[in-house]
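Hello forum,

I keep getting stuck at the same step: I have a sequence, I want structure tokens, and every attempt I make locally crashes halfway through. Rather than fight my setup again tonight, could one of you with a working pipeline run this one for me? It's a single chain of 460 residues.
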Amino acid sequence: MTDGTGMTATLARWVARTTHASFPPDVVEAGTRGIVDTLGVMLAGAREPVTQLLARTVGEDGARAVARQVGGGLRTSPQAAALVNGASGHALDFDDIHDETQGHPSTVILPAALAVGEQVGASGADVLEAYVLGLEVMAKVGAAIGPRAYAKGWHATAMLGPLGSATAAGKLLGLDADGLERALAMAVSFAGGSRQNFGTMTKPLHAGWAASSGVTAARLAAAGVTASAGILEAPMGMFALFEGDASASLGALGQPYSIASPGLTVKIHPCCGSTHRSVDAALAVRAASHRRADEIFAVDVSVPAGEMAALIYDRPATGLQGKFCLPYTVARALLDGGLTIETFDDDRIREPGVSALMEKVRVTERTGADDLGAQVRVTYADGCAPSCTVRHPKGAPGSPLTRDEVQAKFLACAGRVLGRARSQAAADALWGLEGAGPIPFVLDLLDAVEPPLGAGGTRA
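Reply #2:
Ran it on my machine without issues. Output:
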């Protein structure tokens, strides 16, 4: 297919020869944390409307019961399982983000790895390996492409995600370098995703389709389907299509691994990551001032250039839109002292108190290239005006969660579906994933209490 000297061929060759045995301890730890966190939010998302609608639709078609929906009853094909689980993991916008991808890598890559891992009976270590390598590809390619495609309106999760999921699925299927290069080439043809769909059920579908299309690409590559060589650097390849720099370098793969440096942001608020610095600043002002929300006269929020790109709603009409609205998330933080999954229920958006406070929130996006963080200044009726500036939101690499905090988030999310005792048992197994046996036995711990759906969508 290729002479093996191009960027894409070099990338595929590196993936083919790299194994988890060479991972440094910090990479294993970071990968395990990412998997624990993602499975938690995937379980919480299993009860969301978009996940239930998608699982019901997939179940109606019927498929050989090879892979499963996490936290649900569906047994279906690897592609369909990756689709449902990817959407479930992104349904609450509670899943991790990564600066180099400008998107959400884990909710794309892990569902692909789980689906194919279950199909082939892979071990926990195999799934961890595939996940870390998929994230490395997605992050390094994302860093090389840069921010222009996102600024134009492409959703990076859907644009880069198929490459990450194809890498993970291809690794588990045992593809050689040539097969991986073909899988990546197909994945680029599956890339897309408009940010106009933020605040709707279609945004989680971006993650699901990216996961599913990567599985499809890897399986077709294993079957012998051909594709163009050098898909990243070719004249009509990924860099050209998404306004990247064709002369850019992917850097030293695995030196360091992107999952460890710069690392993932594990969210503590179930909403767009672009709100988190402002939300944390608002929470700090509230905690320090000990004042009532009805004493607030004005709220001034100042954010760096580019921070508002994803926050496309000024006055949300639904809970999903509220996740992408800075005035709403800041107002809620000041009113409630925290954001929860229920904060974004549709009826909470229409409460008179939050509507009144949102009218007092003024947002300014600064010009220039400073990254001094988000500042929130709250002016009270008596003229007192405390403020706080946050550069690194809680959960970001600059202010990471402890292992206990990741565990607490997992238990809270998983408990919504599994209950406390089963969530604890699942957490114990997942923290030991590197030494776990076949992944189907691990996934058994994540099954919902209700009977599973059969291949045709009926309860078994």
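The beta strands are 67-68, 75-76, 296-303, 361-365, 374-380, 387-390. If your local run keeps crashing, start a new thread with the error log.
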